[in-house]
Amino acid sequence: MRLLIFLIVISSSQVFSAGGNCGVYLSEEGGEKGVCDNVDIDHLDLPSLQRGVKLYMNYCFGCHSLEYARYNRVAADLGIPDDLFMDNLVFGDQKPGDLMTIAMKSEDSEQWFGVPPPDLTLVTSLRSSEWVYTYLKSFYVDNSRPLGVNNKVYENVGMPNVLANLQGVQRSVCKLVPDIAENSGLKQDPLTGEIIYKEKCGFLEVDLNSGELDEEAFNENLRDLTNFLAYMADPIKSERESLGVYVILYLILFTIFSYLLYREFKKEVH
Ligand code: HEC
Predict the structure, then answer these.
(1) Quick check: 23 and 17 in contact, CB under 8 A?
(2) Using CA atoms, how far apart are residues 265 and 257, in angstroms rounded to an integer?
(3) pLDDT of 201-236, one tens digit each?
(4) Does residue 270 carry a pLDDT above 90?
(5) Ligand 1: centre distance to CA 95 (Å)
């Protein structure tokens, strides 16, 4: 019984942890507004985490610190030797034991972007991994904004589109989609039987061949980046899970012993 309750609690926490509110993001044709895309987070996928930290150090660390983490701890967790990590991913004279802070002063960045870039150590706990993943793919051209870009997940965002050279030029477009009636089912013309289309706006579309990567490769990069940030928010997840196995084994043993004891006591009663 104890074990059963444990398993139910563990599995339900997995189910309810997904999600987040993704603003006016429209995933695909007919998709609902504001639903974030799913992302496959796996803290045991070291190659993905290694690609993720590389992307992070190259594209994000200039503005976003990870100030609750130390270089050597991250290097060790991701299976990267300290010297390789410091030589290839860290620019400047930081030491392996230093916290991952950045040199940019928040007064300066506030002037440049309107808001200082927040520390991202815990961002996937705050927003959810799905939110971060969807946010990073949702920048689009908007010439009314100071930086020329806007974001479907985070409207009027102060961050520039730093991955634009990989993704390409993305725009918000309107498309003709099949009209769906209230009580579900496609609307059809009563005379001809043809499906009726209506215009729906807010879809994202990348200009052909404007980026270095195609959509699939770009999303794979975003998955690695998000996976790294999810690790960052919960670096001892692996340790906790292996500890959990021992806890459950202990409970099983404990249950057996209490049952044996119960049988002994029952003998005495008769
Ligand atoms: C040139 C500086 C700059 C770079 C480089 C940059 N960002 Fe940002 N980022 C910002 C600013 C400024 C904000 C705050 C935007 C706001 O609140 O309007 C921000 C906000 C964010 C947020 C939202 C945080 C929150 O909870 O509000 C996330 C997530 C994020 N950035 C991720 C990234 C990632 C991942 C990268 C690397 C691919 C990156 N950023 C690179 C400047 C930058």
Answers:
(1) no
(2) 12
(3) 999 999 999 999 999 999 999 999 999 999 999 999
(4) no
(5) 25
